[in-house]
Give the backbone structure.
Amino acid sequence: MRRLLLGMCLALVASAANADGVENKWRLELSGGAESAGRIVLQLAPAEGDPIRATVDVVQGRSENGIANDVRDALQAQAGKRYSVEVDDGEDVLVKKHEGERDFVVTIVENSVRGVRISVNAE
């Protein structure tokens, strides 16, 4: 039952994000180091089609630049065939659709890492 409710909530969040507009390129700005261990779960949801999820396990003491690299690696592993993912300015992660792919929305599903803030902005 709990998973069903969580799934419905996530679908609502994705729908709300889609209502705000999909884009072809997103910037994830990470700030702050990991004051605790935890995880970050991100979702890339195209205008049509199945969303992609990436989970990043973060160790306590990891720097914002290190976390940005971890986020990049997790997104590339899950979405590398459909999206280009790179680190920019050390602490930012850029996600761009490949040619022929649909515009998409990036959503932070979970961030349990104390001290780490993530801002998601369309480019």
Observations:
- The first helix runs from residue 2 to 20.
